[in-house]
Amino acid sequence: MRTTLGAGTAALMLAFGTAVLGAPVHAAEPTGNDQGAGTKEAGGRKGSNIYAAVRIQYSGSVAPNGGTGNVTSADVNWSPPPCWYAPYLGAKDFKKKMSAEIEEAASAPGMTGTPAAAIGETKRHYEDEYGWTDTPGYKDYNVAKDGEGMFWAGVENPNEPDYLKRNSCTDLPFWVDNGEAPPPQYEEAITPEILAALAYQHMELPGTEVTLAPAGTTKVNLPTWAWLDKADFHEVQATAAIEAPGFALTATTTAKPVSLKLEPGTPDAETYPASGECTINDDGSIGEPYAKGKADRTPPCGIKYLRSSGDGTFNLQATITWDIAWTGTGGTGGDLPDGTFENAQAVTVQEIQAVNR
Prior knowledge:
This protein is of the alpha+beta class. The protein is 17% helix and 36% strand. It contains five helices and 20 strands. Strands 1, 2, 5, 6, 11, 13, 14, 16, 19 and 20 form a ten-stranded mixed β-sheet that branches. Strands 10, 12, 15, 17 and 18 form a five-stranded antiparallel β-sheet that branches. It has a three-stranded antiparallel β-sheet with strand order 7-8-9. Helix 1 crosses helix 3 (113-127) and helix 2 packs antiparallel against helix 3 (113-127). The longest helix is centred in the N-terminal third of the chain and has 16 residues, at 91-106. The protein is elongated and about 90 Å long. It starts with 6 loop residues before the first helix and ends in a 7-residue tail after the last strand.
């Protein structure tokens, strides 16, 4: 519970949550546009939290069926939100559901002591205006304001691997009037920035393969040219949106390619440039295509292998770095950590055979 609750109330609410409420359950559904998926949270209870019945719709360049995309954040300390608060139910529907949960819990065998007290306090909270610091109570589940707002509740991120983080949005459902922002103490309430981070998490970057010359098989000490055409190496976007009665937000996350790093797969090789970092050209391409007459030139982006791969191949790693930014509802926007995506290509390196006469 939040630190604004008194110790006694916090203990009661925790006991009530253990007895009645439940953790989010998620199911991915196709959007119908063949480009993405919506993650649907079907309202209900499980374990220790109540969860919101809302839908985040993903579109654009995103993984299918609500799955995690293929972008790796360059910032190891950054991660998508593990949970958030979102619109749940209107007042009448919430009363029907919550009051039934309370009655079911109160009638459970052995419901005495602290759990029983927690149930009583929660009932007072929603029926008799019992509140605490920064958390006002409600009269008859706010039924008199039905249609003027919604109760919000916690939603877990189904792609968050840490169970404790995923189930950390455990505050009791709270009311938000239509057109109003959630109370400031709910820092995890859904925002365009949270949606942008979720779009980042679901973003699918193109699996672009670097063009090589010679292609597939090269020779020892022969510069191998590498490049990416603009047509195959372009900006992509992913959008996340949420809509409920009286509430709608959207955010679009954009990834722009900025550089390519080549790792030959063996220390017995040289890269061009020496750093292995090939920057993007003015026209949006990387490197320069090989053509006849360039055999004696040093490629602006490429590799020179110093020994044969024998009967096998070298695993050339081509890592593309993407600049990530977002824009959202209300003119919001900003930057997110750079993303990377790695492609692997098998390269055969042969010895140049000399003939003595």
